TrEMBL record:
This is Adenine deaminase. Binds 1 zinc ion per subunit. It comes from Nocardiopsis tropica. The keyword Magnesium does not apply. Belongs to the metallo-dependent hydrolases superfamily. Adenosine and AMP deaminases family. Adenine deaminase type 2 subfamily. The record marks 213 as: Important for catalytic activity. It catalyses: adenine + H2O + H(+) = hypoxanthine + NH4(+). Pfam families: A_deaminase. The lineage of its organism: Bacteria, Bacillati, Actinomycetota, Actinomycetes, Streptosporangiales. NCBIfam families: aden_deam, PRK09358.1-6. The keyword Cell membrane does not apply.
Length: 319
């Protein structure tokens, strides 16, 4: 049985399985550039983050209606339940949809229809994290935050994702300050492909409470010591890092070194449809390729609840 766990780094658009992509394309009268599911799967061979993002954004074209977003979220929640997930803090990328004419209301209402019944239907409590695309202007992010105001009761936090290098967190300082003023929590992708200085910026300028990925923290001993002292969680995604070649092989993944340095590490799936596994599969890969023992895997699962935005009582009940 998979360990009970929280998933804290999961892009809902990255759970779009090829089969569902074809179903939605058919339903919406769209022709995909890949003729079959097999052809599409064959395109899942990436050389870096950007090569993945190109396909990730292209396939989102099949997401058009509220029902599409509901079906996407329900498909993820069904899989997540089978992987032991009891709580999921789910990223979504509004600008990837509004920029192609899909209203934010359609996205949020569609996702909410699945999330609102998730505890009852799947035994999974949920939270939504609105991510800003860092390779688009900060002014657009601010506009997105304003558009989201009618939905703030459904949104727990803001995040920062998309192409990292050349798009430092400092560009989004004002947007994150505005989000905090609205009562939102803050997380940010940093140190996936970008340098340790981006992690410092996420902490000091964006006031990120968790760092998504953060694996390049290992290159900066002062940063490593800071993250250990403050117990700032890292949401690490091992299969993603291997597939996007942020690390050369699974055997060389830095997760054990991050644990040895005393960091609050969690294990997550990022974009599981694209990276060959959901969250339990990431735990199993850590066992198989890095020899992590049962006690360490249990600690990682406990960390996932500790690092979540759950209220203390539910945390205690789940740990
Ligand atoms: N958007 C979806 N997956 C991502 C990742 N791994 N890094 C940055 N942005 C993303
Ligand atoms: Zn991510």
């Amino acid at each position: 049985m998979p360990l009970p766990k929280a998933e804290l780094h999961l892009h809902i658009e990255g759970t779009l399985e090829p089969e569902l992509a074809f179903t939605l394309a058919h339903r919406n009268g769209i022709t995909l550039p890949h003729p079959t599911v097999q052809d599409l799967r064959a395109a899942y061979s990436f050389t870096d983050l950007q090569s993945f993002l190109n396909l990730y954004y292209e396939l989102m074209d099949v997401l058009r209606t509220e029902a599409d977003f509901t079906d996407l979220a329900n498909a993820y929640l069904t899989r997540a339940a089978a992987q032991g997930v009891r709580h999921a803090e789910i990223f979504f990328d509004p600008q990837a949809h509004t920029s192609r004419g899909i209203p934010l209301d359609t996205v949020v209402n569609g996702l909410a229809a699945a999330l609102d019944t998730s505890l009852r239907d799947h035994g999974i409590s949920t939270a939504l994290i609105l991510c800003f695309l860092r390779d688009r202007p900060a002014s657009e992010a601010l506009h997105t935050l304003h558009q989201a105001r009618p939905h703030l009761h459904r949104i727990s936090a803001v995040g920062l994702d998309s192409a990292e290098v050349g798009h430092p967190p400092q560009n989004f300082t004002a947007v994150f300050a505005a989000a905090r003023d609205l009562g939102l929590r803050c997380v940010a992708h940093a140190g996936e492909e970008g340098p340790p200085s981006y992690i410092w910026q996420a902490l000091n300028l964006l006031h990120a409470e968790r760092i998504d990925h953060g694996i390049r923290a290992l290159e900066d001993p002062d940063l490593l010591a800071h993250l250990a002292r403050t117990q700032t969680p890292l949401t690490v995604c091992p299969l993603s890092n291997v597939r996007l070649r942020a690390v050369p092989t699974f055997a060389q993944h830095p997760l054990p070194a991050l644990l040895d340095a005393g960091l609050l590490v969690t294990v997550n799936s990022d974009d599981p449809s694209y990276f060959g596994g959901y969250v339990h599969d990431n735990y199993e890969a850590l066992r198989t390729h890095l020899g992590l023992d049962e006690a360490t895997l249990r600690q990682l699962a406990r960390n996932s609840f500790t690092a979540s935005f759950l209220p203390p009582e539910r945390k205690k009940a789940l740990i």
